[in-house]
Specification:
The protein has 478 residues and is an alpha/beta fold. The chain has 14 helices and 20 strands. It starts with a strand and ends in a 5-residue tail after the last strand. It holds the Pfam family Aldedh.
Length: 478
């Protein structure tokens, strides 16, 4: 498949390509262009031309087109879902669910765009008026990861489009095909040429996009290290930033918690998408009186999870590539060397249907200590560390002893204690007594090194707008 620029599929200027691999077998099944700086410039120029018209398109029309795109995405779900499943390795039901949530977010952003307003100050003198309005930022570069490539793109694209911005998207090298297909679908649904462009390539392409002087904003989801590099490069032209970076999210299980409910929620959330997402449960602190009981309940639920071999059925798929697998594998080895107990999982799956991919079963590590990597660094894989604590206060202190601050989770029947812990946790989102998917209506983002800015709801749309104050003077009839 080729890049999608200015409404048409386009090869790289120099003709280079890179493979797209099926993670379940390790086999290449397609190629996409390996674009460079010249291709980045072409895409950005296309977006800049389209911006001159798109920013003047009434927001009611932008919202109408966006809702049409959402409907087209739903209609194409079987085709897009199959493509996403092939390039990501996730079982098809999870891919279809991602498409459904993505279309829902597009609709919500469109509705939030219709609620945007300017204000007129009442404090002006006679013959003067002061209007505060908002203009679209301009051309936006959206750089997205492999794990939820459609949904995390819509975090950015849906907000940018309804705000009046145009977008150049660079998907992950692992999952470019679904993004390219969506660009084609949206163009056919009525999105004008150049408003949404997709370029494919490696890190060098991302660097060229960030360094280009024309874009006014970079929206990025990915690692802390990459986010810091983007922020440093963007400072040269004072680009606006939305950075949703890594997470190392803690859960606190108090002695009075509903242990079965807590175990169910942590197992479901911690191992969804084979642990390949940023705000999953990574580490758990359990009060000592219920530690053994909770470990037994959680182990039983996790051990019952199924991993789908190539061509087979199951709840979880493989990790997307060798690098992602190696991170989990190294954290398991580190925990073993430091005295951690492997309760379930812990070793790569092999045999028919597994040998071609990086399959790791859901893994629980008990008696984890603060010096273990699984308790300090993002895993991005199906591994959870667990530790006993003597009090909720100790759990809170250990939970906050981290450079990350994306999400956190608390389980207790005592509402006052739960609210105290939620308020004390240094995280952008906190869940009490259950773990639902993050809502599309409220802000999502992190504290500390987990990022800058917020996405979703009106908060996401507003991050693609600049305030403008207009001072008006006029003659007052006598």
């Amino acid at each position: 498949m080729e890049m999608f620029l200015d409404g048409t599929f386009t090869p790289a200027r120099d003709g280079r390509v890179m493979p797209v691999t099926d993670p379940t077998t390790g086999e290449s099944f397609d190629t996409v262009p390996l674009a460079g700086p010249a291709d980045a410039d072409i895409a950005i120029r296309s977006a800049a031309r389209a911006f001159e018209t798109w920013k003047r398109t009434p927001v009611t029309e932008r919202a109408r087109i966006q809702k049409t795109c959402a409907a087209a995405l739903r209609a194409a779900a079987p085709e897009v879902g199959a493509l996403l499943s092939r390039e990501l390795g996730r079982p098809l039901p999870g891919c279809l669910h991602e498409i459904s949530r993505s279309a829902e977010l597009l609709d919500i952003y469109a509705e939030e765009g219709l609620r945007l307003q300017a204000t007129l100050s009442l404090g002006s003198a006679t013959g003067e008026k002061t209007i505060v309005t908002r203009d679209p930022v301009g051309v936006v570069v959206a750089i997205t990861p492999f794990n939820y490539p459609i949904n995390l793109l819509m975090f950015k694209l849906g907000a940018a489009l309804v705000a009046g911005c145009t977008v150049v998207a660079k998907p992950s090298e692992d999952t470019p095909l679904s993004t390219l297909k969506i660009a084609q679908i949206f163009h056919a649904a009525g999105l004008p040429a150049g408003v949404f462009n997709v370029v494919t390539g490696d890190r060098a392409l991302g660097e060229a996009l960030v360094a280009h002087p024309t874009p006014r904003k970079i929206a990025f989801t990915g690692s802390v290290a990459a986010g810091k590099a983007i922020a440093a490069a963007a400072a040269g032209t004072v680009k606006r930033l939305t950075l949703e970076l890594g997470g190392q999210s803690p859960a606190i299980v108090c002695a009075d918690a509903d242990l079965d409910k807590a175990a169910t929620a942590i197992a479901r959330h911690g191992f969804a998408n084979s642990g390949q997402f940023c705000y999953r449960v990574n580490r758990v602190y359990v009060e000592r009186p219920v530690y053994a009981d909770f470990l037994a309940r959680l182990t039983a639920k996790v051990a019952a999870m199924t991993v789908a071999p190539a061509g087979g059925a199951g709840e979880l798929g493989p990790l997307v590539n060798a690098k992602i697998f190696a991170n989990s594998d190294q954290q398991i080895a580190d925990a073993r060397a430091k005295g951690g107990r492997i309760l379930t999982g812990g070793a790569r799956l092999t045999g028919p249907g597994f040998d071609g991919g990086y399959y790791l079963p859901p893994t629980l590590i008990a008696d984890a200590t603060p010096d273990m990597a699984v308790m300090r660094e993002e895993t991005f894989g199906p591994v959870i560390g667990l530790a006993a604590v003597d009090s909720p206060a100790e759990a809170l202190a250990q939970a906050n002893d981290s450079r990350f601050g994306l999400a956190a989770f608390v389980f207790t029947r005592d509402l006052a204690r739960g609210l105290m812990l939620c308020e004390g946790l240094e995280a952008g989102s906190v869940w009490l007594n259950d773990i639902q998917r993050s809502s599309h209506f409220v802000p999502f983002g992190g504290m500390k090194e987990s990022g800058l800015g917020r996405e979703k709801g009106r908060y996401g749309v507003e991050s693609y707008l600049e305030y403008k104050t207009m001072y008006l003077s006029y003659e007052v009839p006598e």
